[in-house]
Design brief:
homohexamer; two-stranded antiparallel ribbon; 5-stranded mixed barrel
């Protein structure tokens, strides 16, 4: 059966489908009876829903953040569509298609991963190659890596975004191979592959994009160093200085203290990585923001993080 | 005759050569007689010099910032070498080799200009191509362009540095051609060629690198817009929007108000240009700074603008 | 016929008049039929409006930002007044009185312009006098100059505000004539006249106050330099240094990089202009903000740009 | 007898005069004997001095910061003039002319004070007039007020500078009387008179310009409030709100927290006072800085507080 | 009679009780008749109320910020409960229990004050002891001191909060007595007692927590110095330096200009006081913020002043 | 034999002792011959030294940063004492007493460590106790821990300073045990012990205090997390959440991004640790700075990091 998306629900429709419970509460009605108030969502929007009969029994079946399967009728209340729910059950995991709830990369994750591995194969330094392959060929890791978003909100905030961004940074590094003298290309490339590696654990992306506990308390920069430490310990003879320089790349890639890096870039590779990561994140962040503009509008809204409007023009150039 | 450079002058040497007058004053000696106190310089260093006899007559022959030809004897005074000048005359222009006084690019300016023109030829938009050629094929401009430094101090601060940096930014743009969708490559490329064009007038580089009056009071960003305005006015039918976007590239290329840009980048091209300019300036600035380190030192001094030390290591990687 | 202003519309009123279309959309009603949803405005407020019958035909007659003449009935919906529109036609230009839609200066623009010209006549330096008169006696310019606001929001944000502010800065300069030694009064005065001259093109003020494309991408500071450049090119023998100092006044009048000036004031005149412009803008901005306070309130709301409340007191002193 | 100023001392001169002891120490010579090392100063400069014989006895006669009368011979040591002191005695107070040691205003203090009082007489509000006269007619206060500098270094840093600056701010206020509606002119004027009043105690100016203990620990802004509190307590019926507004003027006149004001200006008078104080301080600070430039130099040195160079040009305009 | 709190009002309830008038206006209804629109509040929430009959007569009986006794019926309007008021009279002062309207400390104020006095008795320096007792034993002061909140919003924002915070800072000082050498414990302790003393006048706390006029225009830091000045003037022989150091403690206790301190801490005692005040305010501010979290939530909302989320976890540790 | 300290060397003294080579170069003399120029140092100061004969042979025996044993004669050159070296050999490790070269804590390291362990024994949580004991009972670690300074310059910059500071923070935590409800005391205490643990590797302190490579490229905050990670991995069953909270304490203890913490404190324990660490570092930093003041001086010099002077007064209170 075809899914009915939130944005397509009309007055009087009968709805039978799976939704994500974004908010759940049990207020007392004006007459003193408790009822169940939900905010349900999928990828296309959010909708209010109410259970008037049997509220307490249904309420025990699920918690906020669960996926539920409902039968309901769409009614109109104060000029807005609302769902009047008849029955609820918790959705079976097999019934939930994550893509119905979160935006996804337009590219195939397996293909992107294959490209990344192919570039990684070009690394000559055996320690660095072994290090990145310990990640890229570890299925437990790649399952998450193919799914994680690049950021909660600012850029690549869709399923597969982390991989898409990582691949892009690595491709930029490849394009500049040999351009500046004195760069250790292997090191820079490995840094490109691993710079955001801990975002697979920093962000949660089962229902919506948010931070995990460790994501907030430790942060992906330090979590990345821990992950790299663990793998390096498995590689016999990994040179101490190389390990230090590798970790420096991760630690300094945000470029400044104010942006959460505990050290500033102190090597050419670290400086390069910072610039290329920043370039890719910013350009994509702006493009995603521009894409939200309605047809015919020449300027985006004001972007609060970037502190400016962006010019879309007639759509020819941007 | 071989030039005697400042760094090679030894006690008792007879010196006969051309020097730049960095400082000039006429103090009264302890006994009440005026004498001429000079600080002379060439590319390799600076040296104190004195005229005890006939000071006033010699003093009238030149001013600070002139090049003078002197005959002198090197003496030792308080553990430092000093020149005791016997005669002075103002140097004929033909006698002054600018390369003796200022560091120069290691690359041939004519060759770099040719490369830049070749890339510029690839621009398809006829207005933009005509605009950049109005600069690159104007000999009055290119004479200065081939000589100007990229900055007073921070990066590419040598004769030919502006051209070297411009070419490098343009090459980076070429390398990323087609990488991001939605970029107007012609516009970005023309922006790369012209972004620092007014540095030929912002900086003075006849003796040392410093700002001109207009360089300080107007600044290269706005001077560049004025130069572009003037050329655009000569090109029939140059589209208004294109002119505006072109100038926006120049105005926003420093990326932030605090760095002297009166507008922030509001188009994808402007954002790209800012990143690539910044990347090239920073990487070269760091490399020039690293090169000043003595053999065997593992760290540079503290860099006050960048607010950090840089790691040179064993010299293998950086 | 007397205009019915938005703030005076009552339930059941029949409305026949010209309004500005602030928002326009064509949603689908709960039953699936498209209808026309408008937000109409004049100087006194905004009001929701709906077209239920013939929505699609009417929708083709105008776009957002147009002025339209409507016939409608006022109804009450959820405790708010809404217009139920029967017919729409695009308003003829002659039917639109801009003063009905935008706040205006309380002073007569022609009178203010005459005062400004009279002061300008007192400039002794022939080049500077010729320069400012090239603006003040150019009707194409003055038509806009008499109408433009001083800023989008912060101060003098009403029709004629730019002229009112310019005149005020110039009067302050006149009041301080001769007060500080070493000031070139002619230069400062000309700078006062021209400092915000490009706001006639930076802002749009046909319907509401907003930025133009060039206003955002280039900004009034640099646009002003371009306008001055163009006029100076027409004046034979205009001294180079004077032109440079004149442009420096425009470029530095915001006083700091963070406030959008690409150079800081480096001459006494530039420093003076910055202070007097700032004084006039701030004092008027605060007064306009204080005037919004209801009778009997002793403090204004929190002003986010100024980061403070203002004390109005009993109304005796402020 | 004519004073010999430091700048005029030549080798072999016999010096007999009063100097200020800027530094005093008693090191051990290379051979192990203690000697007295002094740094002496007057308004024209500083000079090293030594006592080789009887150092210990002389050392007991005075401390650092005293004025001493010496007899000495000028000798040359390592290309610098040094005083070889034969005898020292502490200078009698009558022998010390403060003007020999500190720069002074070019205007007559009594005359400036008279002008200030004359303007103050124009205040109509009896409480405010009484308040300022409590200062201006109190001789204990005016003795200091006529002598105090305007600031340690940044502007009006000469004897009489505080009065000169205060008068200037008050004159600016007078010039703008009635210019903006809604300003309580009496309040603003009184604020102008008193805004820096505590600088008479914040700074010490007996020998050089520095801060007093209270100047650092309390600061002139709060000390001023304390002084005003004390006088207001003597004036029967002084209105509470007026006192509060008066003190607000003092507290907020630096305009921002970062500049040491514990509150931001929240009334029109406070905003005006801040701007006019800032204008007068900055313009004079720049002029004093420009005056240090040698004849023929077109730019000042870099000003660290203002973060820029200033353009002096040919001396015609600045 | 038991009070009916706002949060407990249900549809159709008859309400008879005292409420605080948070907002009051007299709009014209859709049909043109004026009616009275109120927003009433107590400690548990706010509620809309309307008077349709006799609006004008009732309106004259009270103003915004008054307490009123009403008789009304609860109705439901657009899914919200609203009061339909039948009669209003101004509440007698005796009828108003402040605790019904503002949150209160969980500790008994008299007990806290007694503890504070007991600690204060331990001060050995007779001047300092006399100074603090002039406050703590002055009933006019302590009546307010026992009631005032610690801050408008950020920490200890409840009745009695100022006393609770003051006692806590003083207890911290006691705990560290003798820990660091070179601290004048008596001075630090007296500083702890008096550091926020003027908050009794800076904030108003009769109905809600807000700033008084003087609180905004002068601020508690300077008001505190004025209060201390006044008491010191009553104490014969109070040493000048001690008074200065005491006031320095008050002035610098915010630690930085940006946080409203006109001087930075320049003594060890001032530095200590700043840290301990900050510690107590921050820890309590965070705890109060954590307490607002619903059961089962592992993170607080984003705290805008602290710029972060706080981790509550399973409730075991925080 | 008694050591001759640098500060005691007099003209003509014969010196035979061990010194640290702070600088070493081989310039060419005025006559063209190479000589050896050294800057030697011990804890009391620095002194210039020269080798004129056999310079090249001696130069091969040691490098900068070595300890050397010299025989030399003290001569006077330009009013300064200089060493004329006759012979050099590299010092045997046994000949070098580190205390002669670096300042040391006044407390006995073993005693301090014993105190720290005693407090640590009081931790009830078995995992946390095991964790800190893994450090405090590991001799390889404690050898360094007893010697490391607390910081390069700002506070506790002496041998044993790290231990002294750590113990002090832990004692502060003990003093506040139970003071605030809801604090996990065990966690906070363990955080106090480990917060700066990686400073044993961040700083080098064999000759002077400086950063190690890893100290700069990784930093003690992240190095500390790595050290803790490694020990936790050895402890069976260490709870995941506890490990995360422990590491959060280390990461956030600088309190702000700008001070190098990659996360801000998000738990009460983290907030407490930040305050107590800051308090101890600041108070000690100020005391160390005050101690440098000469007898009789009432103010310290300007402290550039703290941006203020400190008041020492008559020495009674500070």
């Amino acid at each position: 059966m075809e899914r009915t998306f939130v944005k397509d629900i009309r007055e009087n429709d009968q709805v039978d489908g799976v939704f994500w419970v974004k908010e759940k509460s049990m207020p007392v009605s004006r007459t003193g009876a408790p009822y169940l108030r939900l905010r349900l969502a999928d990828r296309t929007g959010e909708i209010e829903a109410r259970v008037w009969d049997g509220a307490e029994a249904f309420a025990d079946l699920f918690t906020r953040d669960d996926f539920i399967r409902i039968k309901a009728q769409a009614t109109s209340y104060q000029d807005k569509i609302q769902l009047n729910i008849k029955s609820i059950k918790k959705a079976a995991e097999a019934d939930v298609r994550l893509e119905d709830f979160l935006a996804s990369s337009t590219r195939d994750p397996d293909e992107m991963l294959a490209e990344l591995i192919a570039i990684g194969q070009g690394i000559e330094n055996p320690f660095l190659k072994q290090l990145i392959m310990a990640f890229l060929e570890n299925e437990e890791f790649t399952v998450r890596f193919k799914r994680a978003p690049g950021a909660k909100r600012l850029h690549h905030s869709f399923l597969g975004g982390l991989l898409e961004h990582t691949l892009s940074v690595v491709q930029l590094i490849e394009k500049l191979k040999g351009y500046y003298e004195g760069i250790n290309h292997d090191l820079l490339l490995a840094g490109g592959v691993l710079h955001d590696v801990a975002k697979v654990y920093e962000l949660s992306y089962e229902r919506s994009f948010d931070y995990t506990d460790a994501g907030r308390l430790i942060g992906h920069i330090v979590m990345g160093v821990e992950m790299v430490d663990k793998e390096i310990a498995q590689i016999e003879g990994f040179p101490t200085e190389l390990a230090m320089l590798m970790k420096h790349l991760l630690l300094s890639h945000h470029g400044q203290y104010e942006w959460g890096s505990p050290t500033r870039p102190m090597t050419l590779e670290a400086q390069m990585l910072h610039h290329l990561d920043d370039l890719d994140a910013k350009v994509n962040g702006i493009k995603e923001f521009m894409n939200k503009v309605e047809q015919g509008t020449r300027w985006t809204d004001y972007h609060r993080m970037f502190e400016r409007f962006f010019y879309v023009g007639e759509g020819e150039e941007g």
